[in-house]
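User: Hey, quick favor. My workstation is busy. Could you predict this chain's structure for me?
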Amino acid sequence: MPQGSKILIVEDEMLISMEIKQKLHSMGYAVVGQVISGESAIQKAGEEKPDLILMDIRLKGEMDGITAAKKIMELYDIPIIFLTAHSDKATLERAIAISPSGYLLKPFKGRELMTNIEMSLHKHRIKQKVREEIHPDTLSVLGKKIDAIPLPIAVITGTGIIKEINQVAADLGGFLRKELLGRPVDVFFGMQNENDKQAQNDSEIDIILPDQVTIKRKDGSIAPVTLTGGFVFHDRSHPPNYLVLIEGAESADTTSTYIGPEMIRHLMAITEVFRYPAFVIDKNMMLAGHNPLFADLVHKAGISQYMLNRPLYETPKFSYFGDMQDLQAIFRSGDVERRIKSYVFGKTEKFIEFIRIPLKREKVTTHIATIMIDVTKERHAVIESEKVKREYAELYMTLEDIRRLSAELRTCIHDLLTKISLSEPVESGYAQEKIDLVSDIMSQIDAAWIRYAEIRDQMTKKGYVV
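Assistant: No problem, here it is.
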């Protein structure tokens, strides 16, 4: 058994999830996360890149386990075993349609679980090996970089040849990667408006704008897309190749939303005036709006604008700004949430307060606005005030020790003086006992005064004592 294989558990019943976690630990696997919704599963899969996912089919929220599994397999190629207590024909057919690595009916025994996991991991390793043998080009540095991007990407040479394309992009046309590599660009891309195309044919120069492009599918059909460009530099002494991001041209569905873009723009403008990064998401976990301050933050977090145009649960690093399970809970409850998170940058710790405000129409939450406030100074002030309280408490306790020891010393001396004043004989043993006691008390008083002086000096340096 591969020790330490990383496994993600997607199960909305926490008692069952904890039981599965214990079984996995006893078998030697590493559990890298436990989530309860499909959207959170996609986000966590992107963050942790587990070796395998155990996925319950029926989950809380709008996305079930089968839909989440299909998206994870498309984005990250991670083997998935379905767990379910339901074995009805319709569910089974939907699950089989996406080719999972396994299917376990609850309740299952530990040996069944381990066998399914090991078989799934073994089959996935073989599949990867076969894929590498069939497509050795994927082993190139550029190929690995392109494959690692969960978006449709192609690399085009200056002479119009498809130098590299990932399978996500090839799937848009129903092709295998190898069928497009080294082919002219017009094998895959075309023009949306045929009348414009005819006009271009009559000209010496063909110009196709980024939003006028189509994908030529293998079955002969076409699909409108929009292209966004970048560069791939191999050697600065040579011209770069062109990196092309392929996005669907369909406009966002606004019929189901109640908060208009104008209102969102006004909200973002207000937050920018107060210098607060802010963003708004809709129920589909799509970014509906944000201000420039938030754009700066996501850029620093390494999130591209392209990823912000996709469902946010497909963007692993977005967890810096919001956990999918927490956001879904707010959509359900409709309650405002305030939460402070700490971030460590090198040796600096910052505290950011996230204020989540549900935006409602007819008492139904359709969007969530998030405002981010840097409360580092306030938080440090609270921490510092707690330190001051502790130091004053310690100072008080030290003075109390001195008072107590002084009382003990006074009693001891009083007893000795009383004997002398009454002309009572003072036995040598008694006298020595009192001398030792006085000496011990004086030592304790000296130690207490030293500690008092240390605390007072520290507080004076900080300006707490004048």
